[in-house]
Write a structure and sequence with these properties.
The chain is built from 33 helices and 18 strands. By secondary structure, it is α/β, with parallel strands linked by helices.
């Protein structure tokens, strides 16, 4: 079927475009997540497929529309014009798909020829991940399918529209039919002909082409609605997972969207319990057939689940907004790291305002910011008439992010593209920008007497626990990040998510203030990602369980965390196994010390808790001795994780018998003691990002955050390191001399990271050891690239390095099994207790949605009147009809001079003037046939449908429809007994 091919081509094109512009999704994930472990169970397709489908839908629809519009000036036959337009669109899109695939393949071959290894380990397929994401996506799809089809579907020969949705579906149905059965080019509003269009109609053009391609009108509208909703919720779940590191957040975030939080259900329950028992009150709520009203317009269902089947294009805008947030999140994180590394208030201000990277992209940035910007610009250029309100909300969120972000020029370019495109399109479609959007200071939204207290109370009632818990989570994350000296980007993201809501309570955008509710809705959807973080952590506490093993007490893992590299060799669970004891120079290293920090509580921490007798690492050390520096990195075992820190420690003497037993165990690895010359006090070298050196006189004793990684180097040594003086990065291949901790007599502690990407790699992709370091204005300095072959690793100090031990993370408290069970049960109870106020109103509104829409408005797509109009009138003909909202007539794809006034008024048209003209016309221009005919010719009104519905209306000037006048002066061309309508030809 042509419609399915149309949809598939648009989706494939979008996926290819996203893969071209987001060349390394894993690097994007790493730059968004709090730690590298958080992305190990996230496949690239969770971003590329839903983003690609959304982008492909809008780009293909946009291109197809303007191809047909251009052809309409040269081809008079509307049907032929649509056919040619579709064929041209198919040809161009297929050509673009093939071209993009060739470019992507050439890029891959080039990397292979150069022997370039992926900087971030590719996703490893796991059955459990596939099952988890597959089941979650299937559940989301099932719910979305029920939601959309329950209130709009064809059963037999009838099109059924639910009572709670038909009012919005009426203009949408008319618009879809105007592109399939009609030829609405240039486009006009079907309930208000002759005045252009000010409503974002492009989504319904896409649906119209699906209907034109052979899908029934219900499927033509429902299929894109379902797919865009699923894509949006998958992206929201991905955002929640990236911000938290918790896989469970992926499933919880969509759940919170489907079942909103509000106090309406509790208010309703208390009201009913004044006269009934609790059980009877709950039963009444479950059987309720109208939206319970606490705040103004609640009875319209503007906050309920009803909003999504009403506004079918809303989730398309939400999905594109979430996609753009993910694209720009890395730059917020980088700015936070730059300010942390600045080391002083003045340095932070310089990094925030005056560094080069604060405004411009870093040179050779491996995130490919220009390609990301191309994708962002394409998206915002196309968005205005797909969902204008979502575009405004997106720009508001990006404004908040840009304040705290690097690369602000890219934000500016994106915003300029959005504004210019919006201006051009509104001029083309509506003739004047002010017809579409008017920014007016109007604080308070729809709150009566909008004092601060009343507005706060309104927000509390409408949002329930969503904002409260979202803010609580954001503050907790902020405190933890500040304490750990980590970037506070997640808190800043939360603040940015609030911008659309703040805007909604201050500025009126359209004629109807109520239209601002979409900004609030988008904010609440985004905040649901933070609430999902809380719920995911309650359902799987970030705790470590103690266990006995190898004669020492070892930490198993954080329970409920995402599997780290240490656990990747086992498919059994998400907890790391305790490692085997390690023999070093004939002595046993206890399990407690041998276990390395590397689980994923979601905060990016990773520190080993050493016994008190182990002396802390010195703040400054000298260069590595030559004989040690020359040891090759290649000798490392392949199974050593890229992010592992090799810690070799001389431990106090243990029993001879135990040592002998260990020597007899051939399965244990033996670590020879390296010969290390006495090392005097030296400096730790920490190259500034962009090559700019910090002051050599920085306080070496101050606990610093120079190692707060930008997630490519997420697992830097979390031991608090002093601010480090900088040295120039030499260009020669002998730059092997790197910093090592000093060796004391009490203990030998060598630490180094193997295979980690440094912060500079986010600025320049895998720079070679002999390449001159580029100088930028950034206040940061990249760490030495331990992946480079020219740089040493301390792991080379041993010929046979120890295998990686399982992970324990700093910040995850170590508890006994019994205590863990008690705490986890308590957390589950708290989570379930929170789910009640979080979802109770949503559950009650689902019941209302089902009950209210058990009855429908019925249309007949094959009615005799619809068929006659399609077969006997031109697609450009306008009809003078009663003030219909949803009638068989609109399925013919023809425009009405004046349909239901509210639709046109809310879309920005001047209904007051039209109302007066309409009253004049139905009287026959005061029974003047010549004047009536003249005016109708000027407006293209070629037919009059005389319907009994005229008798039920009230009109300006107390006018009445003049049946006798029209029957005497006009020619009747058709009559239909099924509805009592007669069609008269005016000229």
């Amino acid at each position: 079927m042509l419609a399915i091919v149309y949809f598939i081509i648009s989706a494939v094109f979008g996926i290819c475009l996203v893969n071209l512009t987001v060349s390394d999704p894993r690097r994007l994930f790493v730059a968004c997540a709090p730690n590298k472990k958080a992305i190990e169970s996230i496949p690239n397709t969770l971003f590329t497929v839903p983003s690609g489908i959304l982008v492909g839908l809008i780009v293909t629809g946009f291109f197809n529309y303007f191809v047909i519009l251009g052809l309409s000036y040269f081809v008079s036959d509307g049907n032929l014009c649509k056919r040619i337009g579709v064929l041209i669109t198919f040809a161009i899109m297929i050509w673009l798909i093939l071209s993009i695939l060739i470019i992507i393949n050439r890029r891959r071959l080039k990397r292979e020829e150069e022997g370039e290894e992926p900087e971030i380990a590719p996703y490893e397929y796991r059955i459990r991940d596939t099952l988890f994401y597959g089941i979650t996506a299937a559940v989301i799809t099932a719910i979305a399918t029920f939601l959309m089809t329950y209130t709009y579907r064809i059963s037999g020969d009838e099109l059924m529209a639910g009572f709670s949705t038909f009012s919005d579906l009426a203009p949408h149905t008319a618009m879809v039919s105007s592109f399939s059965n009609g030829f609405n080019f240039p486009t006009q509003y079907m309930h208000f002909s002759g005045d252009g269009i000010q409503y974002h109609f492009m989504f319904y053009f896409f649906c119209g082409m699906m209907n034109y391609g052979g899908l029934p009108i219900d499927m033509a509208i429902n299929l894109p609605s379902i797919v865009t909703m699923v894509c949006a919720l998958v992206l929201l779940g991905l955002l929640a997972m990236l911000l938290s590191g918790k896989k469970l957040a992926f499933a919880i975030a969509p759940l919170l969207v489907f079942f909103r939080s509000s106090w309406n259900a509790f208010d309703h329950l208390l009201l009913l319990m004044k006269e009934k028992s609790f059980v009877e009150a709950v039963q009444d709520i479950l059987n309720f057939e109208s939206w319970y009203e606490v705040t103004p317009y609640d009875s319209w269902g503007i906050w309920a689940i009803n909003v999504y089947p009403n506004q079918r294009h809303l989730m398309l805008g939400v999905g594109l907004t979430v996609m753009m947030i993910i694209l720009f999140t890395p730059y917020v994180r980088r700015m936070c790291i730059s300010m942390i590394r600045a080391g002083s208030f003045g340095g932070a201000i310089k990094a925030f305002l005056f560094s080069g990277s604060s405004w411009l992209p870093r040179k050779e940035d491996s995130l490919n910011p220009y390609l990301l910007t191309i994708l962002a610009c394409i998206t915002v250029i196309v968005m205005p008439f797909f969902h204008g309100s979502a575009l405004i909300a997106l720009l508001l969120v990006l404004l908040g992010m840009a304040i705290f972000s690097e690369c602000r020029l890219l934000y500016l370019i994106t915003a300029v593209c959005a504004v210019v495109s919006s201006y051009i399109q509104t001029r083309v479609f509506s003739g004047n920008v002010t017809n579409v959007v008017k920014f007016k200071w109007a604080p308070g939204f729809i709150v009566e007497n909008p004092t601060v207290a009343n507005v706060a109370l309104y927000i509390l009632i409408v949002t329930g626990l969503t904002l409260i818990l979202g803010l609580l989570v954001a503050v907790i994350i902020l405190v933890k990040d500040i304490a750990a000296k980590h970037p506070i980007y997640r808190f800043l993201m939360f603040l940015s998510f609030l911008f659309p809501m703040v805007f909604a309570f201050l500025i009126q955008v359209s004629l109807e203030m109520l239209a601002n509710h979409k900004f609030i809705q988008i904010t609440l959807i985004l905040v649901d990602a933070f609430v999902a973080i809380l719920m995911a952590n309650l359902f799987a506490l970030p705790l470590k369980i103690r266990a006995k093993g190898a004669g020492a007490e070892v930490v198993l893992t954080e329970v409920g965390s995402i599997s780290g590299p240490a656990a990747e060799t086992s498919e059994s669970s998400e907890t790391s196994e305790s490692g085997d004891p390690v023999v070093f120079n004939g002595e046993l290293i206890s399990g407690e010390v041998a276990n390395l920090a590397d689980s994923d509580s979601g905060d990016g921490d990773g520190e080993l808790d050493l016994p008190e007798e182990i002396v802390d690492l010195p703040d400054e050390i000298e260069d590595l001795p030559e004989e040690l520096a020359e040891e090759p990195v290649e000798d490392l075992p392949e199974d050593l994780d890229d992010e592992a820190e090799i810690i070799i420690k001389e431990v106090t003497e243990i029993g001879e018998a135990e040592t002998k037993d260990i020597h007899d165990d051939k399965s244990l690895p033996i670590l020879p003691m390296p010969k290390i010359a006495e090392i005097s006090e030296t400096q730790i070298i920490d190259d500034e990002e962009g090559g700019e050196a910090e002051d050599d006189e920085s306080d070496a004793e101050e606990d610093g955050v120079a190692d707060n990684e930008d997630n490519e180097d997420d697992f830097e040594d979390e031991n608090k390191v002093a601010d480090r003086p900088d040295i120039d990065d030499e260009d020669d291949d002998d730059s092997d001399n790197r910093s090592l901790p000093a060796v004391r007599e009490e203990a030998l502690s060598l630490t180094e990271k193997v295979g980690e990407e440094d912060e500079a790699e986010e600025a320049s992709e895998a720079s070679e050891a002999d390449e001159t370091t580029e100088t930028s204005e950034s206040s940061e300095e990249p760490e030495s690239e331990s992946e480079s072959e020219s740089e040493p690793s301390v792991a080379a100090a041993s010929a046979e390095p120890a295998p990686e031990a399982p992970a324990a993370r700093k910040g995850a408290k170590e508890v006994s099994l019994g205590k863990f069970i008690a705490l986890q049960l308590a957390a589950w109870l708290l989570a379930l207790a929170l789910l009640v106020p979080l979802t109770a109103t949503g559950v009650s509104e689902w019941c209302t949605y089902i009950n209210l829409n058990s009855d429908h408005i019925y249309l007949n797509p094959n009615s005799s009147m619809t068929k006659w109009i399609i077969e006997n009138t031109d697609t450009s003909d306008v009809f003078l009809t009663p003030m219909w909202s949803l009638e068989d007539f609109y399925l013919a794809g023809r425009a009405s001079y004046y349909g239901w006034p509210y639709y046109a008024w809310s879309a920005g048209h001047d209904t007051e003037k039209r109302d007066q003209i309409y009253a004049w016309l139905i009287t026959g221009c005061n029974e003047d046939i010549d004047e009536f005919t003249r005016y109708c010719k000027e407006r293209g009104i070629k037919y009059l449908i005389a319907s009994p519905d005229f008798n039920a209306g009230t009109y300006a000037f107390d006018a009445h429809f003049d049946w006798d006048f029209f029957s005497r002066n006009l020619t009747q061309v058709a009559a239909f007994n099924e509805n009592g309508c007669k069609i008269y030809k005016i000229y």
